Every structure is written in structure tokens, then in C-alpha cells.
């Protein structure tokens, strides 16, 4: 055969082979968790005072979940539930405080490392420090830049963060006049760029919009200032007290600036994934660690941060534990809304199914991987369970449409709500449904194992 005839045939073969090749790489996974972002703080979940167009786009191009819950109503236990796949009745860390994860606690980061993933965590860890078993490098992280101590993470202007170097978590000096979120976000985007050729898991635990209420840059606040530099919102200046958050003369403008800055950063992340050709092989999840706070000048009532729900951070009503969840990229079905009852301890088993690895034992979560394709869940929760300690001993359980709340400050009597008819948990139906109350009491007991660190009474 003449060479002139052979060349087109060979070229056609290689073009066909290239176009029909299937990727062998496992999908990348990115889990972004804001700090104290309320259900109603995004415009795709009802926010009216400002807009979050990039997260709205993410929801339009992916799946918006309406009944997703945090692991707890405060920081550390919620992050423990996420990392270990265990709810508050079984988790080791059930409240705030400097109690670290143990060697025997198995995290989703460790699981993914065992399955060939490079892992990176950026932002607020809060589950252990360098001198104990909870230090990031001991819990599955290859790379880290951020805060180890959750109290330290309350403050954006600091002279140091922490970083993993040569397999150990060490101090990383930074400019105390530069907002720490800027360092965290730069490190996260760099991680994606540096690891695009191999499967990676990134946990981006953004420290906003938690107090203190300071937006990362003046440009972040400027859309919420009039020409004379006064806030477009009715402001009540926040005055610092000893050992507290920094004074903030325009907390509402800065709060809106924090969330809209976060939104733009999510746009940067999506744009980067698209430019690197990683969108189709990267699952991105966006959520919050618990409901909205009111410290440092934050005003969840003005911004309607808890949406249609009752309560805020530290409450076990839905406003304290129901949070946004948006899934985007990967094989996620576009333009869907999902109403399945889920919690962040479901992320671990979902990752297992996405990766196709061996299933871990002892997890409380259920995989919602099938919903990412627009299909029904293979199994649904009989109940979701929470407990909380800062006001004594409070418990809550979700059983389908029914929600039971039990608070020691109210005599530990069951409050019962039908969330299908009463999202705001305004009508206590306990006296009308004693059989459901009895079922809830049993579920509260059955979902809990004894903990010496977290006793029934504190």
C-alpha cells in the first residue's frame, strides 16, 4: 500500500482510539464547608439582602438539597461527624472544647488515602492540635494550611497559621494585617493546580462568615456602602469587650461582604476546575457546619439567616442544624432539587460509593451517591440523632416528617413537631400524639451509647 493511503488510515485509527478512551483516574472530591453559614444565607435558598450568583449557578448546574443537616449545632462535633461518619450518639467528640480525635478514630481522609488519593485540608480543622493524636497529619492529611484550634479560628487577623511540612504540622508565620481567608483560599487553589494529574480529596473548611465579622478586603464591603462610605444597612456598631472579637462599626455590611466574597471564591474554584478540564471528574459539595451565629455583631434576624426555620446556632431546632448542600460537577445530574432527609455523617459512605472502595464498618451514615445521578436512595434513614451540652443536656431526633426536641432547660419534656406541615416548629403536638412521643423517647435512647466525657448531665 502506498504511504499516501496508509497515513489517513493510521491517523483515523489513533483519532478513534483517543476519542473512545475512558478515563482511568478515580474522581476527585472537594468538600467545601463554610463556618456558621445559615440555611437562608444564600440567594438560592432565599436570601434577599444580597446575592450569591456563583453558588446559585452551582445549584442550577447541579443539585440543591433542601433537607440536609449538620452533624451538630456547634463547630467541633459537627466536624467530627463529617470526618468519622458517626452521629452525636456514637461520635467521640460531641461538644466544643479541646478534645482531639484519637488514634483509633478513622476519618474519611484516611479512607481516601488508603484508596490512592492525595489529601489536602485548608481552613479550620478544630479536631486536634500538634501535640496530640488529632493533629492533621495523624488523621489522614497529606497537606494542610489553616487553624488547628477552633478558638484561634475565630480571629481572622493573626500572625500564624499551621502547615504540614515533612510530615509534621508546624507553625506557618503570616502577615497579621492580611485576612487569613486569603491565605487559605490561595493554598486551596494551588492544591488543585498541583494535583490535577492524580486523584485528590480536598476539604476546604472556610472560616467565614463566623465571627469576627470582618470581610477579607475593602472591595468585598464596598458594594454595601453608599457614596459617603456609610452602610446601606441599618447598623448597630459592635464594640469589642475584653478577650472578645474586634470592634466592627459596620457589621451588617461586612457580613454581606464576607458571604459574597466567599461566593466569588466558589466562582474562582469552579472556573479553575473548568480551565483544567477537571469538571467532569470532580465532585464538588458546598455546605455549612451548623446554623447562623449572632456573635461579633452578626444579626441573623435582619438577614433572615435561618430561612423558614426556628432557632440558630446552639439550638436543636431546624435553624440550628439544617444547612445548605449543593452538589456540582462530576456525574451530578443538572438542575435538580432533592428533598431526601440527610446529614453530614452521610458524606463518608457516599464517598465510599463514589470511589468504589471497601465499605467501612460502624458508620451511622447512608450513601446518597445515587441521588447525585438523580435516582432514589437505596436506603433511607429511620432516624437522625443529635445531642448538645452547653445548656445542660439537649437531644433531638428526626423520624421522617416528625421531629422531637428534648431540652433540660425546659424540664426535659418532649416537644413534637410535624415538619411536613410546620417547618418553623411552632406547634408542639406532643399532647396529641403520645404514641409518636413514646417512639421518639425510644429512639433518643437507642441512638445513644454512653460516654464518660459526655454524660447525660453536665
Please render the helix and strand layout as text:
Elements: H1 3-20, E1 28-34, H2 53-60, E2 63-69, H3 75-84, H4 108-114, E3 118-124, E4 143-147, E5 160-165, E6 168-173, H5 180-194, E7 200-205, H6 218-221, H7 251-275, E8 282-288, H8 318-321, E9 322-329, E10 336-338, E11 342-343, H9 347-355, E12 384-388, E13 394-399, E14 402-407, E15 414-418, H10 434-446
Parallel strand pairs: 1-7, 1-8, 2-10, 2-11, 3-4, 3-7
Antiparallel strand pairs: 2-9, 4-5, 5-6, 8-9, 12-13, 13-14, 14-15
Explain this structure to me?
- The protein is an alpha/beta fold and 458 residues long.
- It has two domains: 357 residues, Alkaline Phosphatase, subunit A (3-Layer(aba) Sandwich); 61 residues, Arylsulfatase, C-terminal domain, CATH 3.30.1120.10.
- Helix content is 25%, strand content 19%.
- The protein has ten helices and 15 strands.
- Strands 1, 2, 3, 4, 5, 6, 7, 8, 9, 10 and 11 form an eleven-stranded mixed β-sheet that branches.
- The longest helix is centred in the middle third of the chain and has 25 residues.
- The N terminus is likely disordered.
How large, in whole angstroms, is the Cα Rg?
A: 23 Å
Total of domains: 2
Number of strands: 15
Fourth-level CATH superfamily of the largest domain:
Alkaline Phosphatase, subunit A
Low-confidence spans: 1-24
CATH domain class name of the largest domain: Alpha Beta
Specify the helix fraction band: 10-25%
Percent strand equals 15-25%
Overall form: globular
Structural class: alpha/beta
What is the arithmetic mean of pLDDT? Answer: 94
- Going by CATH, the architecture of the largest domain would be 3-Layer(aba) Sandwich
Number of helices in the DSSP assignment: 10
Series of secondary-structure elements, N-terminal to C-terminal: HEHEHHEEEEHEHHEHEEEHEEEEH
Ends: how far apart?
A: 88 Å
Indicate the multimeric state.
single chain
